[in-house]
Amino acid sequence: MSPRWAPVPRVPRLLKLLGRAIGLPVTTVRAYWAQEARSIRTGSQALALGLGATLVAGIVLASSEERLEGVPGLLALIPAAIGMRGAIFGALGSRLATGILTGEFDRDLSRTSYLGRQVEASTVLSLASALQAGAIAWAVSAALGLTTVPLLQLVAISLIGAVLSSIVLFLVVITMARRSQAVGFNLDDAGAPIITATGDLVTLPALLLATLVLDVPWLANTTGAVGLVAGVVAVIVGLRTEDPLIRRVVRESLIVLTIAVTVDVLAGVVVEARAEEQFSAAALLVLIPPFIANCGSLGGMLSSRLASKLHVGQLDPRLLPGKLAILDFSLTTLLAALAFTGVAAAGWLAAVVVPGVAPLSLPVTLGVVLLAGLFALPILALTAYVAATVSFRFGFDPDNHGIPIVTATMDLTGVLCLLAAVTLLAI
């Protein structure tokens, strides 16, 4: 029974036609939306908060052109750095949400507690991924003939930026998990968008702040060299620890995060290589972080919900999605319509009010974002389902794989979807 305060959303005509095509009655979809009214409300609020944060990140990106040009290779590093913060801490939030659901979670932050061990595993992954991001961004840029700062200096920027942003993200995730357990809201619904948005908000300024180390070249080189050694040691310790929880999280996450870092770097190279040609208007640059972040948030929310259902036996890891999975897809579609409309409106408003940014018209901005969202939605839904079910079928924890895979996939395909929309509409 739906709560009295919760309105029952109307089902769009397009979704009615889709429901008929796949044999899912629209009344069933409507009833599920009513049942999940609190999740819709929580998810919408989280996406709205996330939109505000990522919009700030977009404004920072659009207004940092001079600094970006002054540090070659930084633009290729940004999607990987932001993506890894969202992937690692989104997965941490997903694991904590499952821990709350199964009764394993406790508020204690000691090294032997469930929460403390999860934090320790995420610390190892944060350090390792930061060093990977710097090294891979340098290698890919060099291989493609793009100008970049020296390896150790790019690694130093990535490492310092990761440390600064991770401190904030640990505080956010731990606070949300404790609050979720205390008041009973579902961390699966709010975790991904808020964590992703926080990562977007703090990582870009942290990276820009980290570039100050380049003013002292010997310090940058030393930091990069020491960081590489520390990263290798941390990974070895994480893989060889006697604690089975930490060992499993590190082992299962390292491979998928390495793939995710590489994909994110390719996304950064796409932006860097095509920025002048396709995103010459600063108003389009403003859209990149919030659009990609919302793609990742929507996919992360879906992946987290599916993972929790797999853990408690509500969902079978079938080749083709079952009824409950399709109903969750419909929920994601509703939230996507709200999220992408909000991205367009807020992006246009930011371009209007920020000095030096020539805004596009609202209809054009709306058209670009909604068309890109239409391209991205089936990709994120399919990726979330495949990542969760395949990892579960092979005996892995879908909480460790789902969000990193979805985030990395959408970091690259989100940029491509936006590029496709800009190209098709001849902006």
Description:
This protein has 427 residues and is mostly helical. The chain has one domain. 81% of the residues lie in helices and 0% in strands. The protein has 14 helices and no strands. The protein has helices at residues 13-22, 26-35, 37-62, 65-70, 74-102, 114-143, 151-183, 187-210, 217-240, 244-278, 282-311, 323-353, 362-393, 398-424. Helix 3 (37-62) packs parallel to helix 12 (323-353), helix 5 packs across helix 14 and helix 7 (151-183) packs across helix 9. It is globular and about 65 Å long. Residues 1-8 have low confidence and may be disordered.
Describe this structure in a few short sentences.
With 427 residues, the chain is an all-alpha fold. The chain has helices at residues 13-22, 26-35, 37-62, 65-70, 74-102, 114-143, 151-183, 187-210, 217-240, 244-278, 282-311, 323-353, 362-393, 398-424. The chain has 14 helices and no strands.
Q: How much strand content do the residues show?
A: under 5%
Order of helices and strands, N to C? HHHHHHHHHHHHHH
Q: What's the total number of strands?
A: 0
The helix fraction, in percent, is: over 70%
Q: How many structural domains does the protein architecture include?
A: 1
Q: What gross morphology would you assign?
A: globular
The N- to C-terminal Cα distance equals: 47 Å
**Runs with pLDDT <50, length 5+?**
1-8
Radius of gyration, in Å, reads: 21 Å
Biggest pleated-sheet summary? none
